Amino acid sequence: MKRLLCLLMCSISFLLQAQNDSGWIITSGKVSNYTGVVAANGRIGILPEDKPFKTKSIILNNVYEKASELGVSQIVSGMNFANLDMEVDGEKITEAHVSDWHQSLNMKTAAFETSFTFKNKVKVVYTIYALRNIPYAGYIDFKITPLQNVSLKVTGKIETPKDFIEPLSTFRVLKDNETTMPILQTVAKTRFGSQTIGTSATFIWHAINSTREDQRPELHHNKISDYDNELWFSKDLIKGENYNFAWTGAECASQDFNDPQSESERFVIFNLLTPRAALLQGHKDLWENLWQGDIEIEGDIQSQLDVRLALYHLYAFSRSDSDLSISPMGLSSQNYNGHIFWDTELWMFPPLLLLNEPIAKSLVNYRSDRLDKAKQKAKNFGYQGAMYPWESDDTGEEATPAWALTGTFEHHITADIAIAFWNYYRVTHDMAWLKAKGYPVMKAVADYWVSRATKNEDGSYSINNVVGANEFAPNVDDNAFTNGSAITALEFAKTAANTVGETPHPEWEIVAKNLKIHKFPDGTTMEHSTYNGAIIKQADVNLLAYPLHIVTDKETIVKDLKYYEPKLAEEGPAMGQSVFAVIYARLGDAEEAFRLFKRSYEPNKRPPFGALAEAATSDNPYFATGAGGMLQVVLFGFGGLDITEDGVVQKNPILPREWKKLTLKGIGPDRKTFVVK
Fold first, then answer.
1. Where is the Glycoside hydrolase family 65 N-terminal domain (predicted)?
2. Most buried pick, 10, 25, 278, 450, via CB within 10 A?
């Protein structure tokens, strides 16, 4: 009876664990059309491949070099320390001779695992971590199970991009008292010498005293060239006896450190001398803290996985201690040069503001830290206040390629930033931040819009010659979203001034009340003064209903929805569908909201893990902007959450019939929970 009870309890425990894991782990076997998902920690992004021990790239956040001699800046794809080779009985393991191939992403612990069997000789499991607790370091944990007696050889590498210059590759065994620390290292400059990159790596045997040379396998250095630096060991394995070791690397740049070489060594030494359990627990604890802000969906496991993957990427691409922002592709690639756009403030920032206020603070601080450059740009173009760049890098100057009209004319981003700033204050009520960082930016933005607007003969104001959110229509007058965001920024600046005890400039209110929003004869909002029904790249007019709350009457909201949804181009980015979905949910139409929610991302998913491309017709994952849009549907649409002067409140939530229950956890500074049944 006791045994039966024990078996029953074990079965229940197993089922509960499986159910729990089902919303956190995405798994895949071998597929023909493969797009990886990144392991990232807000500083580095490691992108695995579908080949044994191979990674595609390591992206370094906020580290930039010119993309070409006459080009603009581009985020750096650094040295790759996460490629290894493994030989069994003298034969290199390749994808041609492996079976039982599986890869999985555990979103709860940010662990990317690969497992396979090689020729019935060894079973291999290895897990990639971009350590959250050691943000410039990666860690690959290996478990080798020999299925027969075999000889093993493992080679760790530092591979330097061929366009880097002046590489110096070394291997040294550092020593302090009886502690020895073997360090493989390469130091080089990026292609035009703007950055010095230092990368260090080593093997770790946590189960033994790996600091003593007589207790670890002998290490051998093989410098193929200064661009290919290798360290290897060999070991005879006995059938059935698991063999565990790790490979760790750290990569530092002169952007962040005066001496990136030495700092990379110190991080590797820290990982070498810290017990494995403690090192990985520190990483897992920080991810557990991140997941205090979470979204739980009952009754639809696929939606749960999709939503968690979106939130995982926003967390993986950012840090609360960095004062850095998030580019459209995060740390997954060099797409869009790793620059910062409106994508952050309008799409990614709102979910993070609700679910992780410390990260949201980093995002707004990124802009306040670059206020002086925005003021300089305004002055250079003949305006007052602050004019933020359409594409921003580490400098805060305009980083858009000169041929792109967006860089010279897409000005709504300046208002988008101020709106994000006021929303940050409305959620946190952080008066010290508002006075020191928030209001100075909002005031400068308001002054810009006053100088940017043109007064018409009838007393109204226009903002002329802009590129709006719909970039298919360049150099138009009175773009709906540009004018709407300017109105909102001006109104918020007035409220912020009164909040901090300052006197708002009277022209802020005058311009805000008189900026033109054009209408068709039937009352439908026109996208700009000469709009004639052309296909649009993404939602523009509809943003006046959400998130701007300028168009508030239901009749006009519905007219604008019905008019503009059919005009969205298939090659447009995902966010337009997200906006429509939020608005339909707020109107109480769960069916239309759910249809558009799924349409906002499902056509963009790429196998095998569901990484999001920018559009249904593109192949450039991971599109963090789209992730922000779909999360807003859940939070501000189905969840009914709204940001008000009183903080985050819930208004008229609605549940799709496909879901049984929606739980929003860790909302706002008080970490509140909201439930929709």
1. 40-164
2. 450
Please give the DSSP secondary-structure letter assigned to residue 437: I
Return the DSSP state at 438: I
Residue-by-residue DSSP string for 72-136: -EEEEE--B---EEEEETTEE--GGGEEEEEEEEETTTTEEEEEEEETTTEEEEEEEEE-SSSTT
**Among this protein's residues, is 645 annotated catalytic?**
no
Provide the 8-state DSSP code for 1.
-
User: Where do the domains of the chain lie, and which CATH numbers do they carry?
Assistant: 36-289 (2.70.98.40)
pLDDT at 570: 87
Q: Is 614 labeled as catalytic in the residue annotation? A: yes
pLDDT for position 4: 37
Q: What is the pLDDT at residue 216?
A: 82
Q: Are 577 and 585 a contacting pair, CB within 8 Å?
A: no
Rounded CA separation 593/82 (Å):
42
Torsion of CA 256, 257, 262, 268, to 10 degrees: -30
Choice between 6 and 134, residue whose per-residue pLDDT is larger: 134
The strand pair at 98-106 and 111-118 is best described as antiparallel
Res 621 pLDDT > 80: yes
Query: DSSP character for 637?
Result: I
Amino acid identity at 173: V
Please tell me whether the overall predicted TM-score, pTM, comes out greater than 0.90 for this model.
yes
Q: What is the pLDDT of residue 439?
A: 98
My answer on whether omega of the bond before 622 falls inside 30° of 0, hence cis, is: yes
Q: Which residues, 6 or more positions from 380, have their beta carbon under 8 angstroms from its beta carbon?
A: none
* pLDDT of 214 above 70: no
**Angstrom distance (rounded) from CA 337 to CA 404:** 14
165 forms beta bridges with: 189
Residue pair 339/327 in contact by the 8 Å Cβ criterion: yes
The three-point CA angle 449-451-454 to 5° equals 95
Rounded CA-CA distance 191/180 in Å is 34
HSE of 130 in the Cβ direction (CA atoms, 13 Å)? 32
End-to-end CA distance of the chain: 40
| Span 392-442, pLDDT tens digits | 999 999 999 999 999 999 999 999 999 999 999 999 999 999 999 999 999
- Token look-up 């040379």 returns 213
Q: Which of 251, 345, 391, 471 is catalytic?
A: 471
Residue-wise pLDDT for 590-612, tens only, equals 999 999 999 999 999 999 999 99
Confidence check: pLDDT of 334 > 80: yes
Task: Determine the length of the chain.
Answer: 677
